[in-house]
Amino acid sequence: MKKKLSLLALLCAALLIALPAFAATELYVFAAASMTESMNQIAEMYEKVDPNVKIVYNFDSSGTLKTQIEQGAECDIFISAGQKQMNAINDKFVMPDTRFDIVSNRVVLIVPKGQNPTNIRSFGDVASDKVKLIALGNSDVPVGQYSEEIFKNMGIWEKLKKENKITYASNVKEVLAQTAAAAVNCGVVYSTDAATSDAVEVISFAPKGTHRPIIYPAAIMKDTKHKAEAEAFVKYLKSDPCSAVFTKTGFSIPKK
């Protein structure tokens, strides 16, 4: 009898030790792929702020994330690389008064590092014989939309399409990978993505006035089952430690 009681006590102790892990709340955060590095750093920091909350990321193009939310994917917080994707789901899925602008970014032209034999130096060079193939995000990807806007305002978009110079990628990380692998002559990505790779070189920033400001909106979803935890994490995203991470990885903090 005494032996059985001892085993029971050990079992109870084991359950008590394991309890905190089972009690952790999983907070699903859908974020633009261009935020991968900064948000992963923030998740590590947040583990110390609230060990009972586990941040579970889903990184992809904002268009893909928007579609997943519309199709019923479990999402507590959405951070888009463009206002368009957030606007599309705003009325039906976004919790009122939770939307805010979290960071801003810049668009750059990159080439494979050390592999620029034709001396590409500007966005205008993309229309010249210096470039045979350029990687861009597709029309459902914010960076692809900004790229199209830039080249349209420069008056060379139709020329690029007519000459079949464009190869499309499903998100900005794919554009980065294609360029880093020298599968193309150049690519258009965010400055923050370019900063994460030693295999590419930034040649030029997008000409001033050729595209809308790049502002990333964030919001809590109406259907979240963890409203208090989501509000706490959003509050943390607005804190100085998080702003420091965003700034260090190349983002800017929008003026409030």
TrEMBL record:
It comes from the Bacteria. One of its GO terms (cellular component) is plasma membrane. It is found in: Cell membrane. The keyword Transmembrane helix does not apply. GO terms for molecular function: metal ion binding; molybdate ion binding. Molybdate binds at S34, S62, V172, Y190. It holds the Pfam family SBP_bac_11. Residues 1-23 form the signal peptide. The keyword Ubl conjugation does not apply. InterPro entries: ModA (IPR005950), ModA/WtpA (IPR050682). GO terms for biological process: molybdate ion transport. Keywords: Cell membrane, Membrane, Metal-binding, Molybdenum, Signal, Transport, Tungsten. The complex is composed of two ATP-binding proteins (ModC), two transmembrane proteins (ModB) and a solute-binding protein (ModA). Involved in the transport of molybdenum into the cell. Part of the binding-protein-dependent transport system ModABCD. Belongs to the bacterial solute-binding protein ModA family. This is Molybdate-binding protein ModA.
